[in-house]
Amino acid sequence: MTIPVAFYAPLKSPDHPVPSGDRSMGRLLLDGLALAGFAPELASRTRTFEPAGDPTRQDELRRESIAEADRLARLWTDLSRRPRLWFTYHNYYKAPDHLGPDMARRLRIPYVLAEASMAGKRAGGAWHSAHSAADAATRAADAIFCITRHDREALARAPDVTGRLVDLPPFVDDRMPPPARPPRDVGGRTRLLAVAMMRPGDKLSSYRILAEALAHIRRLPWTLDIVGDGEARAEVAALFGPFGDRVALRGVLLGEDLAAAYRAADLFVWPAVNEGWGVVLLEAQAQGCPVVAGRYGGVPDALEPDRTGLLTEGGDAAAFAELLSAKGIERD
Q1: How would residue 227 be classed by pLDDT, with cut points 50, 70 and 90?
Q2: Closest CA to 207 of 237, 186, 246, 165
Q3: Distances in Å between the alpha carbon of 120 and those of 58, 117, 197, 258, 276?
Q4: 8 Å CB contact between 240 and 224
Q5: What does residue 117 show for φ and ψ, rounded to 5 degrees?
Q6: 331: pLDDT confidence band, cut at 50, 70 and 90?
Q7: Which residues are bridge partners to 195 per DSSP?
Q8: Residues 128, 126: Cα–Cα separation, whole Å
């Protein structure tokens, strides 16, 4: 008999219409649970993401979660339909898990987290309420899966959770081996690829650093394909406009189209500003495309340095350019 698991992602549901690394990882965890012999089902699409630091909105989201917990409790009055485990992916101060601890208590089932954080610097600030909820959820978990060493080191500072930490290294679905890679560009140009949503904040910062780095090596023979879209598309287009037809914005690609883009590239390039670790880095490597990335958070855990990828100091466009120039891009 398979064990039913209630799966929940407070930041972004696995069936959310907008692609992102969080959506991809949620789907990977669902697939992984199924392959391990469990029967995972999406428990709720209630989203608690509050990026602006608005205490009023945070309180509204908490009340919405309480109402959702009441709904689920009524749904699962039939003991035969109840999950035997609650699994939450990504609990942090901007998207705290209000549901998991509550439902685990009501149903008397284990509560498990993957990719949790305890951001003490948010205590007392604009996200105080959400931080407190995320912190309480992390402390309530029976087990916490740490996807990167960075996560583990941060959580290990709290003695009351140290004994519940379980390593779960970054992974992608590589059951299908990648087809043969296409030949190099006939003009001898190195084909670069970046895959990321176009939104303000860290993603746009990464695009800025990438554009600045490429400006340093304009003399070298390269082209860049950018896969992604979003509200900051105009800003991204402006950043790369000076490179003319050397840079192409391909929009959103999914499935085999995205896999083909990885296979067609010689290097995956991404400054990775404040990335937790980056699903796209693993996707690129799985398709045989080496990575050049910024050293942030858990990014080092998503590649094998000097074998499947190279790392630069985070946020340093000149260093990024130097690495591409020294090791990444072939000369004419």
Answers
A1: very high
A2: 237
A3: 18, 9, 28, 38, 17
A4: yes
A5: -140, 160
A6: very low
A7: 227
A8: 6
Alpha-carbon torsion angle 214, 217, 223, 225, nearest 10: -10
By C-alpha distance, which of 172, 37, 167, 58 is closest to 115? Answer: 167
Of 251, 263, 244, 264, which is closest to residue 195 (Cα–Cα)?
A: 251
Closest CA to 145 of 129, 161, 127, 125: 161
Report the DSSP pairing between strands 267-270 and 247-251: unpaired
Cβ neighbors of 163 (< 8 A, separation 6 or more) are none
Element spanning 129, H or E: helix 128-140
- Tens digit of each residue's pLDDT (9 = 90 or more) over 25-45: 999 999 999 999 999 999 999
- Could you give the angle at which helices 279-286 and 255-264 cross, rounded to 10 degrees? 70
If we measure between CA atoms, which residue out of 287, 302, 292 comes closest to residue 269?
A: 292
Q: Are 304 and 326 in contact (CB under 8 A)?
A: no
192 within 8 A of 230, measured Cβ to Cβ: no
Q: 3-state class of 70 per DSSP?
A: helix
Q: What are phi and psi of 152, to 5 degrees?
A: -60, -45
CA 270/CA 280 separation, integer angstroms: 9
Q: What is the pLDDT of residues 100-130, one digit of tens each?
A: 999 999 999 999 999 998 877 777 789 999 9
User: Which residue type, as a one-letter code, is found at position 57?
Assistant: R
Average pLDDT over residues 132-154: 94
Do residues 112 and 145 make contact, with C-beta atoms less than 8 angstroms apart?
yes
Mean pLDDT of the chain: 92
Residue reference for tokens 């495309």: 289
Task: Give the predicted TM-score (pTM) of the model.
Answer: 0.86
Tens digits of residue pLDDT in 236-261: 999 999 999 999 999 999 989 999 99
| pLDDT (mean) for 213-220 | 96
In contact, 89 and 48? CB cutoff 8 Å = no
